[in-house]
Write a structure and sequence with these properties.
It contains 9 helices and 14 strands. It has a 6-stranded mixed sheet.
């Protein structure tokens, strides 16, 4: 390298400012007939590199918990500079956020290169500009750190990546993440002839490849979070990342690990989400009210079961609201009540949910209020029905 470029390269990390190591029209290397570069990397399952005598080369650092600062480089041709204005900002946030979310970034550096595609990942190198920086940086964990089979089971790669992108986007905006509604979306797609189950080889997914590979896993994890809590799912996946790093986990390893960490036998859940294209299709069939008791008849027309979650809203005034063992007060005039998924395991298509909150009048009941369970028709989940 030229003395100037070498000095600038060595200065990265001395401040939080972005450093231009080689600017437009500048030479980064000394004159000579031939230069030989040696690249060394441990624990990588693939590699890529790029070169150009026109590259602008910039650098900055990301602060990795428990590891300190690591260099992050960008190389691109001048006419594409506008695509890299926010590339460092997006990449730095991704590396630091995912290091806290799952595990510290493992590798020695990361390079964004202006390659032939704006979205291809390798260990320590991503062909990406600012648009896909967060997503491509996330691949340093899945599949690069865990070594999952991204061709056979792409949902463990691209699908988990899409899930963590939702969390990262919220963090970057400084707002809490919200996965409400994601699970319900699947009801609009379920059963399409174009959809392949997640456990089909991604290369055999046909026209449904994009949904199967990228979009369905976050919907699945939305439902799982709706049952056990999003924080519990994230904690379990964090432990999964640590336990299976560089061990090439299979889907069965993931399922078994999550069951153990969440303390539940979720065989039914994994079966329907991974091996089928079924949905829940729950509805409030009728509501029967007596003097002190309300019976809500829930109908299940889908093949995928789900817990029965009801939001019960009361009139503002009236007698005190009694407590039920499987309920919690959301606020002064509403309660959420849950029955386990096992209410469907006897094969019945209907379930009578007995509500005994005392004499306070009920004005509204909503099934699946957080919209976590896949369903085509959302209008039949509210009582009284709209006229």
């Amino acid at each position: 390298m030229t003395p100037k470029a070498a000095k600038l390269l060595a200065s990265i990390g001395n401040s939080s400012d972005e450093v231009t190591i080689v600017g437009e029209g500048e030479k980064g290397t000394v004159d000579g007939d031939q230069l030989t570069w040696h690249f060394v990397a441990d624990t990588v399952n693939d590699f890529a590199w790029a070169t150009s005598d026109r590259f602008i080369w910039k650098g900055n650092t990301a602060d990795i918990p428990g590891k300190g600062k690591i260099p992050v480089y960008m190389v691109y041709i001048p006419e594409r500079a506008k695509y890299f204005v926010k590339a460092w900002e997006n990449t730095g946030h991704a590396l630091e956020f995912y290091s806290k979310l799952w595990a510290p970034y493992h590798f020695a550096q990361l390079t964004l290169q202006d390659g032939p595609s704006a979205g291809v990942e390798y260990p320590m190198v991503i062909n990406s500009n600012q648009g896909a920086a967060d997503h491509e940086a996330a691949h340093q964990w899945w599949p690069m750190m865990l070594g999952t089979n991204e061709i056979r089971y792409a949902w463990m790669d691209e699908g988990f990546n899409s899930y963590m992108n939702i969390l990262s986007a919220a963090d970057k905006k400084g707002i809490p993440f919200n996965l409400d509604g994601y699970g319900q979306r699947y009801g609009k797609i379920s059963g399409s002839e174009d959809e392949a189950p997640l456990m089909w080889s991604a290369n055999d997914a046909g026209s449904g490849y994009s949904f199967q590979t990228y979009q369905k896993a976050p919907l699945m994890l939305s439902m799982l979070g709706g049952m056990v809590g999003d924080d519990a799912v994230i904690s379990a996946m964090k432990k999964y990342t640590a336990a299976w790093a560089y061990k090439h986990p299979s889907p069965w390893d993931f399922m078994s690990f999550m069951d153990h960490e969440l303390g539940e036998n979720l065989d039914w859940f994994w079966y329907y989400w991974l091996f089928t294209t079924e949905s829940v299709e729950g509805s409030i069939q009728k509501v029967t009210q007596t003097t002190r008791k309300t019976i809500v008849t829930i109908r299940q027309d889908g093949e995928m079961p789900s817990p029965v979650v009801l939001l019960v809203e009361f009139e503002d005034q009236g007698p005190a609201i009694k407590n039920m063992s499987n309920s919690k007060m959301v606020d002064d005039t509403s309660a959420e009540i849950i029955w386990p998924v096992s209410v469907w395991f006897d094969g019945s298509r209907t379930f009578d949910a007995d509500l005994n909150f005392g004499d306070r009048k009920i004005k509204k009941i909503t099934l699946d209020p957080h919209r976590r369970f896949p369903d085509k028709d959302v209008e039949d989940k509210v009582w009284p029905k709209k006229k």
